[in-house]
TrEMBL record:
Residues 1-82 form the GST N-terminal domain. This is Glutathione S-transferase family protein. It comes from Thermostichus vulcanus str. 'Rupite'. Pfam families: GST_C, GST_N. InterPro entries: Glutathione-S-Trfase_C-like (IPR010987), Glutathione-S-Trfase_C_sf (IPR036282), Glutathione_S-Trfase (IPR040079), Glutathione_S-Trfase_N (IPR004045), GST_C (IPR004046), Thioredoxin-like_sf (IPR036249).
Length: 200
């Protein structure tokens, strides 16, 4: 059985757990709390030298790191990773976008706000609010007249982008100017076997 290392309240762990459940893949969840430094313990680093969560341990004992890579691995040979070469390239494009724009600006800002570190990071938050809003604008424009991000079907691009976008307001972002994003978030929440991000 697969083993998923991490904590349910982590957005990056949630992405993987949501996909596992939606694909009907059995797994065992093993708690590794990065906020308490458990991801820096020698026994965890022996499994995952990156020291991140999530990590996915395969039946073979191989351990995969990086949430986007794990999503691709799990979705391979399923419609969740597209049906054509071009769709798969488009999905990868949005996975990279999520990591460089959404996670960098929106997830980080949300973490600082929720952790009581907003004042200490005020100048960075001001910058992130602008850059994160620019990213939301790109997403909203792309979604106009579309159901999902790639191929008019729910894919891992939607899983990745949804996770931190739907809780962006917890970091001070305003989703009201982006009706296409709001409607898309609702559609994601109506997919089979969906469950909410704990704490959202």
């Amino acid at each position: 059985m697969l083993r998923l290392y991490g904590i349910p309240t982590s957005g990056n762990c949630y992405k993987v757990e949501l996909l596992l459940k939606q694909l009907g893949i059995p797994y065992e969840g093993i708690s590794v709390n990065s906020r308490q430094g458990e991801n820096r313990l020698p026994e965890y680093l022996a499994k995952n030298p990156f020291g991140q969560i999530p990590a996915l341990e395969l039946e073979s004992g191989v351990v995969l790191a990086e949430s986007a890579a794990i999503l691709v691995y799990l979705a391979e040979d399923t419609p969740m990773y597209g049906q054509t070469k071009l769709e798969r390239a488009e999905i990868l494009k949005w996975l990279f976008f999520e990591q460089t724009r959404i996670a960098r600006y929106i997830a980080t800002t949300r973490f600082w706000v929720r952790a009581g570190q907003a004042e200490a990071n005020a100048s960075l938050i001001e910058q992130n609010l602008k850059l994160g809003t620019d990213a939301l604008r790109i997403m909203n424009t792309h979604l106009e007249g579309k159901t999902f991000f790639v191929g008019e079907r729910y894919t891992i691009a939607d899983v990745a982008l949804f996770t931190y976008t739907h809780v962006a307001e917890q970091g001070g972002f305003d989703l009201k100017p982006f009706p296409s994003i709001q409607a898309w978030c609702q559609r994601v929440q109506e997919t089979d076997q969906f469950f909410p991000l704990p704490g959202a």
